[in-house]
Amino acid sequence: MWGGWSEPACQGHTRNGVVVLQNWYDANGRRIAKQERVAGQTEKWLYLYDGWDIIGVMDGVGQLFETYTRGVGLAGDIGTLVAVTHYVRYLGSGGTPVTYYLHHNDRGDVVLARNGTTTVTSYAYSAFGELKSMGTADVSRFNFSSKERDPSTGFYYYGYRFYAPQWQRWISRDLIGEVDGPNLFTFNLNNPVAFIDALGLGVLTPEGLPLSMVRCLRAFRLFSLALLLKPYLNWREQVNKLPQDPQKIWWVPVVGDILGTITFYDEDTRKWIHLPA
């Protein structure tokens, strides 16, 4: 028992047989506490929520550690972080609270932190969210997609699941199971731009397109690609037959059915060569 939460509400992550992270959850499934081991040090954190938004963090003895100011974001809480305030315990004895203003890129990742007009630190990520570089001061526990990063594992906490940027996938199976196919780690039919899945229990478009129609469209797309595959492979084979010397090619229009007929003038034979697609 720690902080009033019993062991059944706890979930842990291990590395080489050593527990590096333990999480505690409430009845709504929100992570309300964690104990993490980083660089040989163990820290305990308690979370304060406004709905599903984390607005504050306390340390293991109940002292206020950080608070967060939020505004309007892209979707959910992505891009909503405006500022983080670090309190006395964070700064040491004699310190005063310091507020850092956070800046995001177009997809809601925290990329810059400023104290007034002074840039304190910056963050850079890979395409799938792995933290590639960071300034000398780490002032924000929220990074990629405005989600909290656990340094012990490198995972991001998204509320319902943890995301592993180093593996480019979630670490737990989709709640919907095999309804959307045998891949239990997929998300929104691998097309999160077009589809939404608020609870992990069904895929919808913002307009509410039925899932059955989504599957039909997906099957039609795969069928269309299959029809084009053979002509494309044949076209590529013909392209490979073109002379390597660019001076021998005067005109190569790509016109006609599907991928078109390849036409060029071969100076060696002084003839027009037509390669039908």
Description:
The chain is mainly beta and 277 residues long. The chain folds into 2 domains: 7-172, no CATH class; 211-275, no CATH class. The chain contains 2 helices and 18 strands. A hairpin with a 2-residue loop joins strand 3 and strand 4 (41-50). The radius of gyration is 27 Å and the shape is elongated. The model is unreliable at 1-8 and 249-259 (pLDDT under 50).
Low-confidence stretches: 1-8, 249-259
Give the biggest sheet.
11 strands, antiparallel
Gap from first CA to last CA: 71 Å
C-alpha Rg (nearest Å): 27 Å
> Roughly how much helix do the residues carry, as a percent range?
10-25%
Return the structural class.
mainly beta
Q: What labels would you give this structure?
A:
277 residues; eleven-stranded antiparallel beta sheet; 2 domains; mainly beta; 2 helices; disordered N terminus; 18 strands; 12% helix; four-stranded antiparallel beta sheet; elongated
How would you summarize the topology of this molecule?
Blueprint: E1 10-15, E2 18-25, E3 31-38, E4 41-50, E5 53-59, E6 64-70, E7 81-86, H1 88-91, E8 98-104, E9 110-115, E10 118-125, E11 131-134, E12 148-149, E13 156-157, E14 162-164, E15 169-170, H2 211-239, E16 254-255, E17 261-266, E18 271-275
Antiparallel strand pairs: 1-2, 2-3, 3-4, 4-5, 5-6, 6-7, 7-8, 8-9, 9-10, 10-11, 12-13, 13-14, 14-15, 16-17, 17-18
In short:
This protein has 277 residues and is mainly beta.
